[in-house]
Amino acid sequence: MNTVQDNTELRRRLAVLDELNLLSIDETETFDRLTRLATQLLKVPVSQATMVAEDHQVYIGCTGLEEPHATGRQTPLSHSFCKHVVETASPLIINDTRLNPLVSDNPAIEEFGALAYLGIPLITSDGISVGSFCVLDSEPRIWQDNDLEALKELAQSVMTEIELRYELKKRRDVEATLMQYIRQEEQTRIAKEMTVSLSHDLRTPLSTIKLRVDMLKERTQDGDTLSSLDAIGERVDTITSVLNDFLLMWTPSHIPKKAQEIVYIDVILNHALEDVRELRQATINATHLEENLPIQVNRQLMKVAIANILENSIIYNSSEQIVIDIVVEHIIEKIKITITDNGDGIPDDELSHVFEPLYKVNKARSFNASGSGLGLTISQQIIQAHQGTIELLSTVDVGTTVTITLPVAQ
Questions:
Q1: Does residue 152 contact residue 121 with C-beta atoms inside 8 Å?
Q2: Could you give the C-alpha distances from 152 to 47, 48, 146, 162, 384, in angstroms and in order?
Q3: Is the peptide bond before 68 cis (omega within 30 degrees of 0)?
Q4: CA distances from 19 to 79, 120, 159, 165 (A)
């Protein structure tokens, strides 16, 4: 076998050892029992279930070893006969180790008194040789056919135990993942119910407060009082907006067709622009809106998605003159909407978080960061629910570009 093949086999073996957790010596009793049985059946002092790693071998089962190896359960490959079994994936029969050129210089002969060796390869169901089940004698010995057959049966028992453990581990991992998913789904359900309930419970008192504020404004002419009432009204509007955002957080992953309509993209964009024009003065350049490209969407949700993006372009912008460029393109069966601003930009280490709920970028620099922190999260959920995509690129002190793609209505 050449060097390339050797390295390939080594990588495969190490991968299997890692996957099957075969270099661990945490649970050895079953394998120790099989090695004890081997010493009794073959009337030898030492038996080992050995896994061969890159530079050492590990005994997942052993009987008859002296200390410190009985406790440490590993030796360097310089002391290994089993490595030859693994390399050839064939039984190795040595009647006198001192006379066999393959192992005659092995220090285990002198240190452990290993004068006879019989080893059977441990091969996975995928055909990967990972170790050896072996016995050693302190005297030269002519191994018999029945010795070989008995050791083969025990080696097969070792591999059966290994693969049963692996299948059990996989099943437990699947069950753990499933239970985690179930718990997350249950937590999500509870969170949704609490959010919806709380939002509805708060709407009535907020509406009452807003109504009374409006009534008081009609009954007073005092400037300070009017200013205070305006401030209260703005706060009520802000809280209401945040509650609306939390409700939108539960946008389903797919919007039913019956909740959609065919509408031109320029209509959605113009409505979104109307929602944000009062935030701050901004120069908004829109290109190709006259093409009247149709999309099939929930009109209100899609307007919210785009308005949230435009709002971010405005509130996270410290420049004196805000400029937002909107370009709409028809690319095969997709509509591509590109929204570019000259805002503060987003640091590279924060880009991966911008779609996370409640995450706010550049808090200290934003013009007005009093929103819910759900804007981009909601936009992403709405766009994806319409089989669209949203991507964001940004450079600090240069600006941000958001690219949305949506399918053209058929």
A1: no
A2: 13, 13, 10, 15, 58
A3: yes
A4: 25, 22, 14, 12
Pairing of strands 389-395, 129-137: unpaired
Contacts for 121 with CB less than 8 Å, ≥ 6 apart: 85, 86, 88, 89, 90, 91, 129, 131, 132, 155
Determine the Cα–Cα distance for residues 150 and 115; give it in Å rounded to an integer.
20
- Three-state secondary-structure class, residue 386: coil
Q: What percent of the chain has pLDDT over 90?
A: 31
CB contact at 8 A, 61 and 31: yes
DSSP secondary structure letter of residue 369:
-
- Has residue 175 got a pLDDT over 60? yes
Q: pLDDT tens-digit profile of 92-106?
A: 999 999 999 999 999
Residue with tokens 């092995």: 106
> 142-150 contacts: CB < 8 A, separation 24 or more?
142/95, 143/93, 143/95, 143/116, 143/118, 147/42, 147/118, 148/91, 148/93, 148/118, 148/120, 150/38, 150/41, 150/42
* In 114-222, alpha helices (H): 145-219
Where do the DSSP E strands lie in 82-128? 92-94, 116-123
What tokens were used for 5?
Answer: 């093949």
pLDDT digits (tens, 9 = 90+) for 343-381: 989 998 888 888 887 666 554 444 444 455 677 888 898
CA pair distance 114, 174, nearest whole angstrom: 44
DSSP string of 223-267, one letter each residue: HHHHHHHHHHHHHHHHHHHHHHHHHHTT--SS--GGG-EEEEHHH
Taking the C-alpha atoms of residue 243 and residue 221, their distance in angstroms, rounded to an integer, is: 32
Alpha helix stretches (DSSP H) within 249-323: 265-276, 299-315
3-state helix, strand, coil in the chain (%, to 5): 50, 20, 30
Render the burial of 108-135: b for 16+ CB within 10 Å, e for the rest.
bbeebebbbbbbbbbbbeeebbbbbbbb
Number of residues written out for the chain: 410
Q: Smallest Cα–Cα separation from 242: which of 99, 95, 372, 392?
A: 372
**Contact by Cβ (8 Å): 264, 294:** yes
The H-or-E segment that residue 86 falls in is: helix 82-88
Task: Tell me which of 149 and 259 has the higher pLDDT.
Answer: 149
